[in-house]
Structure formats: C-alpha cells, structure tokens
Amino acid sequence: MWRRRRSPLPTSTVALYRSSLFSWQRWLLCSWYRKSRPGCPAWLTTKEKITMRLENRIALITGAGRGIGRAIAEAYGREGAKVAVADLTLEAAQDTVDAIEQAGGTAIALEMDVTDEDAVNVNVNSVVKQWGGLDIAIANAGIQHIDPVHKLA
Fold this sequence. Notes:
Blueprint: H1 11-19, H2 23-33, H3 42-45, H4 47-50, E1 58-62, H5 67-78, E2 82-87, H6 90-102, E3 106-111, H7 117-131, E4 136-139, H8 149-152
Parallel strand pairs: 1-2, 1-4, 2-3
C-alpha cells in the first residue's frame, strides 16, 4: 500500500517555503485551480479580472459562421474585443454575432467570399471605417477540394 512520506523538513520550514513562492508561481497556482487557495490574492480568484485581455482591440475573423471560427469569435468577444464576423452567408455570421452580443460583446456581421479579393478589400475597409482600425486578422475560412491527390497537383 502506498504511504505518504513525511517531509524531512520541520513543518515551520515547509510553511516558510510555501509562503516564499514567487508571485508568478502563486499566480499560476491560483489561476490553474481557479479557486481560493491560501496565499492567493483576492483579485486572482475573480473571473472579471482574469478576462478582458483583448479589450479595445478590433478583430476580423473569416469563416466565423460556424465551427472553429465561431468558437474563436465567441472567445474574442468574451475577452473584450470588437469582432467582425465574416462568413460566406450573412445568416451564419449574424447567428454568431447574436451569440457574442448575448454574452455582452460587440460584433458586426459581414458577408465575405475570401476567394474574391475585391470583396475582402471592401469588407476590411468597412471595418476600419466603422471602428477606426484593425488589430487582429484571423484567416480561418478555407476552401476544400475533394479530388484524388494526383488530380490536385
């Protein structure tokens, strides 16, 4: 049977070691467990202080109507970014925008075909015009060719 080994150090020495953790180690422990631990500052255990890392940033995410792109857009919205949701269909983009706005974020829906360079330029310019810039661009949209490999080359 497994038995827990006793520390060779006196209890007071172990307590001193635990209290002398570097601040980044304490932050890592507190944020990893997301619970109150002895020695954790109160501001580390509240979710409001941990989130909002992208506040005042503007992100354009293509292919954000569903799947991974939607998950990225919703995460960026939770983190405080203004999100421009671009998808091939406006309805899919609007569904993502509605989800972001329900969570308290800011977003706009764009209908964009990434294979059309003019459409991409028009939509990027509209985001820049509406929000005053663009900080983050995520090219998530993809084009899938379902052919045998020897025909693609």
